[in-house]
Structure prediction request, 371 residues.
Amino acid sequence: MRYENVLATIGNTPLIHLSRISKDIPATVYGKVESYNPGQSAKDRTALFMVEQAEQEGLIKPGDTIVEATSGNTGYSLAMICSLKGYRCVLTVSSKASQEKLSLLKAMGAEVVVCPADAAPEDPRSYYSRAKQLSEDIPGAYYLAQNFNLNNSKAHYSSTGPEIWEQTEGKITHYVCCAGTGGTLSGTARYLKEKNPDIKIIAVDAYGSVLKKYWQTGEFDESEIYPYKVEGLGKTIIPGNVAFDLIDDFIKVTDRSSAHRARQLARQEGLLVGYSSGSAMQAVFRLKEQLKPTDVVVALFPDHGTRYLGKIYNDEWMRQQGFMQMEPQNQQHPAANQHMNEDSYTRYRKIYRAYRMKYKRYLRQTLKSMS
Prediction:
């Protein structure tokens, strides 16, 4: 096949039957593998759509600077697009981002500003605040703001949703997707719900994120926030792109279980997928008791595993996190350990909350003096 440029290859990613890993799940389970995009993630769709919409609206022109806060994947997609369209690309990235992601961003010509992962969103040092400030300081700069740019969701409404519907011949019953900026989740969900309101939308969240609690109560609970490892999943803010009204269930998964599910996908399905793909797969296992043989489950796998070779696919890193002892010799993830992990996270969260409450004032004063 012949294409005008690499951007023409974005989309139409495969839907792959996960027959081995899901053999004990009473449903047909597919993975929507977004690493087949040229930038190896679902963010190719988002970045291209947002940039082209901004061009059509006269907000940017070649030679301008595009600024964005990113966990890494949107940044890589933007850097790729900027190199082809003639834009300068400046990215603010959380220090939680893998070294592989940072190296990829720089290899594509992006200017990268690494910000502390533990900085609160309103903290001037956070990667959200730094992106906004840079867009104001750099002449001719445009802040893409993927968390609140509704073209993020529209990108998936116009592409990912129709693809899944057609690939399953309209038989999909459950859509499982990680909740981050909300674009991939909500845009796809909106399209699918319009086709069939009975399709269940399952959002996946991380422990340390505020999204599930907000969905349950409508309140932003700061006490839900604490550090976690998985990238591209969860938020410490409420993004404007998350359509909470479309979500039928919200499942929280642990760093540990997500890492092992990703490794299991590699070893049983031959799919080297990213950390949050493991989160989506873990959520499918959490749904197991609710599923029946006629169900068709689609889990979206956002990115490629090469961006996590130094983390979840590195045995030493896994040992450092205390994750390795959970992996049995036969390389199969023990579902029996699942509840133990959730309980452990609950205990750690209580300890962390108590510490925060006791030293909150001191920490704020210290951070203020450091800024």
